[in-house]
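--- STAGE predict ---
source: upstream dedup step, 1 unique chain passed
mode: sequence only
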Amino acid sequence: MVNPAEQTLPRRFLLFLGPLVLTNVLQALSGTLNHIYLGRMLGAQAMASAVSFFPVFMLLIAFVIGLGTGASILVGQARGARQMDKVRQVSGAVLWGGVLLGLVLALLGVGLAPRLLQALGIPPEIRGEAVAYARVMLGGLPVFFASMLAAAALRGMGDTVTPLRMLMVSCVTTAVLTPGLIKGWFGMPSLGVASAAWGSVAGALLSLVWLAWHLERTGDTLAPRTLVAYLRPDAKVLRTVARLGIPTGLFFITGSLADLALLSLVSRHGVHATAAWGAVNQAMTYALFPAMSISIAASVFAAQAIGAGQLTQVARVARVGLLMNLVLTGTLALLVALLAPQVAALFVKDLAVIELVTQALRIAVWGAVIFGLASVFSGVMRAAGTVRVPTAISLGCLALLLFPLGWAFGVAFGLPFIWLTYPVTYACALLLQAAYFHGIWKARPISKLV
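--- STAGE serialize ---
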């Protein structure tokens, strides 16, 4: 007889994924709107100034992405075991550590921004504006970190609706404020490229204010009044979170470094190629959302099942996650490939850039599906505390394959085929993750982390 809980798992995935995907879309929409504003209102050079900093920004927040992953796993297991004090303990310690990290990185980054962008080989004609943009984004790191970690804790509780509402506040604020700062509407200063950064920081800050008010009003487990006593360093919790999260952070760091290396290949072709890189990255961000969201859902549901002692549900979670990726991520990838010219035209008006973006998107977008399948395997294993081998597989593929393949494809086939490196690299990772999951990991016992 089929377990009734298993019958509801696909529906639970969909209910969890809907708000989560929309949250990710709104989060990226803020950045996308900023790039559209810059490209349309100030030109391709302004857009290139902003997008040239994006890989650096992802590199800096990679560790916090890892902390959020570790926190959501521990919160998920504590929630599954109905240990609400443990939920607050994990959330408070992680928020404390994340904000402190943001302050340190902000202080260092603001001063080092000019040297950093110069070392990356950013074209001199856009470097000054890129530095201005970077300094504002770096100064806002504590706000961004707090927002990301609060959302991760809520997802560990199974709540994806509150982070969605939080991002709605951020997106609306950014969408209204950025063009006003670009053009100096209503007496606001005209800040050029930095307007997009100021809009992003203001949106994130206002969303945090709303979140605190909302959680307090509803009497949530993580309401500020009850959480404040737990906002302190907790060595045991932070060690466990770090053990789970640092590998994820390293994955994003390695990916960001590989992206920076690929960006150096693309930037050699000039400002138009750099602008195309930014447009492709923005479009790929959306294509990857279902894949990343399904991976998060698989990790949270596996963690909750482990916390509740329902270990037979773990394999079921993996199967449903794989199916969801094939259907949802695959459908979106097909739409992006078919509508690539229209997608490109959202970001730039230059016909040569649009043509390059179209070619690159139709090559790169299939990597999202493959990435999603590999991420389900690693996400489920991570929920049980297994991080070393899955992370080694991911890091190894990114570090050893991404840049060399991009260089080789670019030399052999031309500029657009640099993006072929993504689906090929992710395919190698998928094969290795699946082999380890089915060949070794499933035979091992699973134990609780909290």
